[in-house]
Structures
1.
Amino acid sequence: MKYLLIVILLSISVCNGYSQSNQEEKTGSWFTYAGTHRVSDKLSVSTLSQVWMFELAENFNFILLYGGINYKVSPNLTTSLAYGYGDIDGGFYTDKPHTYENRIFEQVTFKHKVSTLPFDHRFRVEQRFFHKYDFKSTSHRFRYRLGTKLTLNKSLFIRLNNEFLVTLESDILTENRLYTALGINISKSCNVQLGYLNRKINGLNLHRLQAGLYIKTDHRKKKQ
């Protein structure tokens, strides 16, 4: 129960004290599917799809699809290389043209414990290639995410993480994402998460409800 209170207090604190634009007045939604498919002791493949909405289940904002390969350097350290494709809406209730993105990223994930509390650190560098009509541009971004998972029982857990995003061309913090969720273990290889995301970007303070499905599969050959 104390963990649930922590999540509620964090969510309330980040919602207060900000002026609102039309976009900020809406509670949007964020739907996620993520899969990790192990093919050997060292290698695994990741797949992900995300759909963002300006409002609850309507008013399209963004879609991202990506696939990547992961190499486990040690039990606590994993490196990744991935490619993603994105479609970005031109704006909130506007007829501006969409922007299309091709994205490559390199990533390092490190896990450890402080006492009995697990922490995970994700470091990611992205090369982003945008296209809109005849206009093309390139951007590079660094991301760092710190997260933890609080186990309540065999079926329930709480996920907490905060991520900083920096556009390297401007060398300033361009975005922050604070995420809290209640996770439900459907099986050993599948869970769903229902949560809240506070996204601060370009002077906006956005609130998003998230629903995610996370799957892990193991395709290694069983030892005889």
Note: The CA atoms of residues 5 and 11 lie 10 Å apart.
2.
Amino acid sequence: MLTVASYNMHKAIGTDRRRNPGRVIEVLNELDADIITLQEADRRFGARAAAIPPLLLEQYSDYRAIPLDVQIDSMGWHGNAILAHKSAEVIAHDILHIPYLEPRGAVMAHIAIKGFDLSIFGMHLDLSGLWRRRQAAAIIKLARQYGAERPTILMGDLNEWSAAGGCLHDFGRSYNFVDCGRSFHSRGPIARLDRIMHCDQLKAMAGGVHDSASARKASDHLPVWAQVAAA
């Protein structure tokens, strides 16, 4: 099986309002996933440098950030990043331009790991429901173009508060949702904002929210995870 996860790391600013990338590293290591999509992986202002210094990630985790070739100091594209276990082979990667009201984007990678050859998409959708649906439509179209022949997983912070409507309905026509649970707010989860979806070539064996003492402090979101296998 393959373990994947998605984590809105809130620019490494914890619930105590302190920036501490070391705590995020601790949560990543607790997850022990093969592939992780990150949201808010870069600082918001200035050079938008990576919220986790690359050397810290290299020395204290088994992950590497997939290079997106956008900004020199950034880890992601509009804060979206993909981490892969160091044993993974990254075959291709790209940034995705999607419609937006406020600056938004998505990222993808073609990864080979543990006998899987799959496409991974990471996203952080708009606060506006209308724009979320437009973004969902764009991402679904791009996912068909980039990875229709491969098993596909889409993950991220969808910012969707409804139980089944809005962009969830749109994604649900093409992909299956893993039942992970409530991930926001980390101090008292009330909403399923963070989601993992997969195509029919895969099946979810398990899924959940990673609720640890470290995760409750490191960000305002808890990570979600899923174990998948070939269908």
Note: The chain has a mean pLDDT of 95.
